[in-house]
Every structure is written in structure tokens, then in C-alpha cells.
Amino acid sequence: MSDSTLGVILLAMAEGSVLSLPVAGGLVGRFGSRPMTALAGLALCLALPLPVVSGSGLTLALSLALLGAANGTLDVSMNAQALSLERRYQRPIMSSLHACFSLGGAAGAALAGILMWLGVGDTAHVSFAAAVGAGAVITVWGFLLPAEPRGERPAGGFGWPAPALLFMGALAFVGLLAEGAMADWSAVYLHDSLKASPALAAAGFAAFSLAMTAGRLAGDRVVGRLGAVQALRASGGLAAAGLAAGLLVSGPTAAIAGFGLLGAGIANVIPVLFSSAGNAAGSGAASALAAVATPGYLGFLAGPPLTGSPPSTSAFAPR
User: Fold this and answer.
1) Which residue of 113, 191, 195, 304 pairs with 184 in a disulfide if CB–CB is 3.0 to 4.6 A?
2) How far apart are CA 316 and CA 304, in angstroms?
3) What does the alpha-carbon distance between residue 278 and residue 168 come to, in Å, rounded to a whole number?
4) DSSP letter at 318?
């Protein structure tokens, strides 16, 4: 198939994720985050091999949409579960949990590279990954927390989010817009505009990703000391300074350092927003998370094309 056809088909995963978020909020509110996290995790594992074994463009698009829907549902349900856990701890832990996502992405990429280097076939590869993932979900199912009435009460149907949630959704849009643009454009900018070698150009996104992971590992202490509002302001200032330095100071080294500061700056934007949304007064955690996550996902989609490149779907994973 042509590049344009493939690009349209790959968007099916992002579309499935975005469309599933409001529905996931209602399901988690009705049944609780514990069963929905487990069921969505199993659904994601079962759907993982489907795109590889698809025999046509239509079945590939449907398989990716199903994979994205399971991913979006897991995104809402596991973050609602994380909010319940955070209330038990009575201190911020959301950033550390999101750091585990970042570490898992790096570990998954490394393990996938090893399996490909060993010559494992694509169907066997994803089937093995799905089996391991399903085993992990089944193992931890019994350790998940039951629903909390305060945080997971069913929403009263589809409606317009509260103004505070709309504002947090706008911030999530901006944060993930920057992340999506970095995923597609950092290496292009270093290679084409600053004439860096391909290996050095790849270091731009690596610096961004590593700084984001480190920022999330330290994020809970920062939020505990400064509070959510001040931490968000400091994060935004650091991200803006890093992006400005990366673009205004000529040279690959400055750009890589600036992209690292950008990663550290936006590392805790989504964790802080999700935690704040889930604890917002007068709103169930699941529906509030969906209200903030939906524009965030749209921002990730919009970032690359607004800056000139086709949208990436590689980072559409649970946050």
C-alpha cells in the first residue's frame, strides 16, 4: 500500500483511543477501576496480535481501532486506580507511576529489539508479548484496590465538563501537543536545520525522553514541596526556557540540551493534571480523567501536523 494509505490506516488507532475515552469514563464510574483496569488490560493483550495477522487494509484499520479503544479504556481505568492508591498513601505518587510507564516503554523497545535481532517472527513476537502481558494482568488483578465511592461514582451521563476541567483539558492539550511535536520533529530539526549526523540527531529525542523519565521520578517530591499549582507553573517555565534555548541558540549541542530541559519541564504536566482532575470537587474521578485526557490525546495528534509533519501514533499508549 502507498504511504498515504498507510498513514490514514495508522490514524485508526489514535481515533479508537480518543473515541473510547468518554465511554471509558462512564464504564469506570459504573463498575469501578479495579475490574475495568483488568478487563481493559486483557483486551489490550488480546488485540495486540490482530494488526500483525490482518490480511487487508480494512481489517488492519479495524484491528488498530480496537487496539486503540482498549488502550484508551486502560488509560482512564488505570489512572483512576492510581488515584485511589494515591489517596491511600496521602501524598503525591502519580508522577512516579507515570515514570514506570516511561521506563516500560524503554524496556519494551529494548526487548523488542533483542527479539528481532534473534530472528523471532512477527506473529510469534507479538503473541509472546501478549501472553506475557496477559499473565502480568492476571497476576496483579487480585492486588488492585476496590472502588472508592468518592472517586468512582457513576457520572450522570454525557455532559459538558466543569470549567475547571475544561481548563485542565486545555493544559493537557498543550502539554501533549509539545510531546507529539518532539516525537516527530526533534530529529528532523537537528538533521535538516542544524546539519547534525543521523546518530546525533537521534540524541535529541533520547535526551527529551530520558529527561522526562528523570523528571517524573523526582516529580512527586517537587509536587509535595511546591504544591500542584506552583509545580505546574515551574514545569511550564522550564519547558518554555528549554524549547526557546533549543531553537534560538544555534548548534546541535544547545538544541539537545534544550530538548532535555523541555522533557524535564513537561514530564509532570500530565501526572499533575490527572491527579488534580481526579480530586476535583463535584466530579467522579473516571469522568474527570476522561474529560482531561480527551483533549490531551487530540493535542498529541495535532502537534506533529501543526508543525509540519505527519502525525505519529507510536506513543499512543497508557499514560
Assistant:
1) 304
2) 14
3) 11
4) -
Find where cell 509539545 sits: 178
**Residues in the chain, overall count:** 319
The closest of 100, 25, 110 to 285, measured between CA atoms, is 25
All three cell numbers of 165, joined, read 476541567
Please say if the pLDDT value at position 290 is more than 90: no
CB 154, CB 284: distance < 8 Å: yes
User: Please, what is the end-to-end C-alpha distance for the chain in angstroms?
Assistant: 31
The predicted-structure confidence for 94-143, as pLDDT tens digits, reads as follows 999 999 988 888 788 788 888 888 988 999 999 999 999 999 999 999 99
Sign of CA dihedral 25, 104, 113, 210: positive
Q: How far apart are CA 1 and CA 18, in angstroms?
A: 25
Question: Residue for cell digits 496480535?
Answer: 49
Cell of 118: 534473534
Answer whether 55's CB lies under 8 Å from 89's CB: no
Is 247 in contact with 299 (CB distance < 8 Å)?
no
Reference 13, options 50, 54, 66; nearest CA is 66
155-175 as b/e: b if 16+ CB within 10 A: beeeeebbebbeebbebbbbb
